[in-house]
Amino acid sequence: MGYRWLLLGLLSTCAFADQPNPQRQQELLNMLKHDCGSCHGLPPKGGLGPSLMPEVLADKSDALLIDAIQNGRAGTAMPPWKNFLTVDETAWLIQQLRKR
Amino acid sequence: MKLSYSRCLLIFLLSSALPSHAELRATGDLGVVIERETGSIQIVNTTKPASLSRIEGLGDLSHASVVFSRDQRYAYVFGRDGGLTKIDLLQDKIDKRVIQAGNSIGGAISQDGKLIAVSNYTPGGVKIFSADTLEQLAEIPAVYGEDNKLSKVVGLVDAPGQRFVCSLFEGNEIWLIDAKNPRQPVVKKFKDIGKQPYDALLTPDGHFYAAGLFGEKGLSLLDLWQPEKGVEHILEDYGKDDEQMPVYKMPHLEGWTVAGDWLLVPAVGLHEVLVIDTREWELVKRIPVAGQPVFVTSRPDGRQVWVNFAFPDNQIVQVIDLKDFNVVKTLQPGKAVLHMEFSPRGESVWLAVRDEDRVMVYDTETFQETARLPVQKPSGIFFTDRANRIGW
Question: Has the keyword Metal-binding been applied to this entry (chain A) (predicted)?
Fold first, then answer.
């Protein structure tokens, strides 16, 4: 388990060097607003899913958040998004959420 | 008596601005379209079809729903951020607006049209307001379990007898609320009704309340004619051996999904629409469809059922013909079809196509597009004929 966190952590650090292209960024932001937003709100102050506002995310590591988005969260309504988002894209989205 | 030129001009301008000169507007022809990103709505004419006005300042409409006063003059918009806004459809303006909670999911209007009930996530519970003034009359916290936690409330509908019915998502309960005395509503609680009810519907006759379950298979059914019999768990076995797929958008149950003796509901996490015989409450068919269904909406005459889908299949709309329960048409109106609303007698259907910034109108017999209206990031579409339907 710990090894997986480390791996994710490394991947996410690498991600910042490799940003999605501008067109993909627009697609990702649209997805954040509308597909994530259907459960998390717009701004994402929460709904069926929890708030994704910067102050709520502050004490959560990138690795934890990447895992939640990529693999979903068992026992909740959060599905895995790894078929639609690369780890790099996931890390970029988390960056956007943190600096809102 | 002499009037100056400027005074004449002033009188002319005033008289042309008087409401008596405005085109008369009958509300039976109207509807509301939600613009989810801008927190605004458009008032539309459903016969022309045309957009009549845009009203801004409704807060967070990332999830929104609408009910209408029974005179169809006012629309009550329930926003995500707890905003409850009363819109005057005759005057294109906000009549009243309150922020009644931190996070809200939907609402209902009472049988007599005098009460508005709202279901909230934060703080979890139901609040009851005067439909006229939006004054709060009662607050019912959704307390459950031994440590008195608050549950998110979903699937709130009005029911005959000045009642409301709702479900507790975390609490696994169905509550039957008698609001004959709106300041002191009486709540009958049904516990352990099944895991994580996510939404619910009332049959058009107001007889049965069915809550869809997210945490396990099937639906929880309450007979409102004999509530003392308790809640029955139906369809608990369907698809239990199938691989469960992740759910990318919660299905919705509110609306008309009953056609004749058949109830059609989305299968959670499966590419299927389930057909239930409402005489025996048994599953009679599983119809394969193009994705995970979100809305399964019956045309008012019950001959067709239109289905839209969760991400990543939300560019597709399919039509099921109830003659033989098969998909007879697959449409691709554009990216992200979020909602469908039929004209009062069903000759046309309006589709909200979010990522194309438009609403499209289709003829339900020819399946041809007949009109489109520019709307910014449209989500829900609500027509005033909902005003006189039970459980909408």
Answer: yes
Q: Report the number of distinct structural domains present in chain A.
A: 1
Cβ–Cβ pairs < 8 A, chains A and B: 60
Domains of chain B: 100-249 (2.130.10.10)
> Which of B36, B246, B250 lies at the smallest CB-CB distance from A72?
B246
For position A81, which CATH number holds?
Answer: 1.10.760.10
ipTM: 0.80
In a domain, A3, yes or no: no
CA distances B105 to B21, B60, B65, B87, B125, Å, are 40, 11, 8, 18, 11
Tell me the β-bridge partners of B126.
B119, B140
Decide if A20 is inside a domain: no
Verify whether the Cβ–Cβ distance A45 to B169 is below 8 Å. Answer: no
Residue at A8 is within a domain: no
Tell me if B87 sits within 8 A of B126, measured CB to CB. no
Instruction: State pTM to two decimals.
Output: 0.90
Which residues on B lie below 8 Å from A37 (Cβ)? 36, 62
Give tens-digit pLDDT for B315-343: 999 999 999 999 999 999 999 999 999 99
Residue A1 in domain = no
Interface with chain A: mutation pick from B248, B268, B313, highest number of A CBs within 10 Å:
B248
Q: Is the pLDDT of residue A14 over 90?
A: no
Domain that holds residue A59: 29-98
The closest CB to that of A41, out of B80, B246, B355, belongs to: B80
Helix (H, G, I), strand (E, B) or coil at B355: helix
- pLDDT, tens only, A25-34: 999 999 999 9
Substitution target from A29, A31, A38 for chain B, most B beta carbons within 10 A: A38
Interatomic CA distance for residues A63 and A66, integer angstroms: 5
pLDDT at B366 over 70: yes
The residue ranking higher by pLDDT, B296 or B245, is B296
User: A-chain residues within 8 Å CB-CB of B37?
Assistant: 33-34, 42
Longest dimension (CA), chain B: 92
Best B34, B37, B60, B62 residue to mutate vs chain A (most A CBs within 10 Å): B62
Q: What are the CA-CA distances from residue B78 to residues A29, B25, B59, B139 (Å)? A: 25, 24, 10, 16
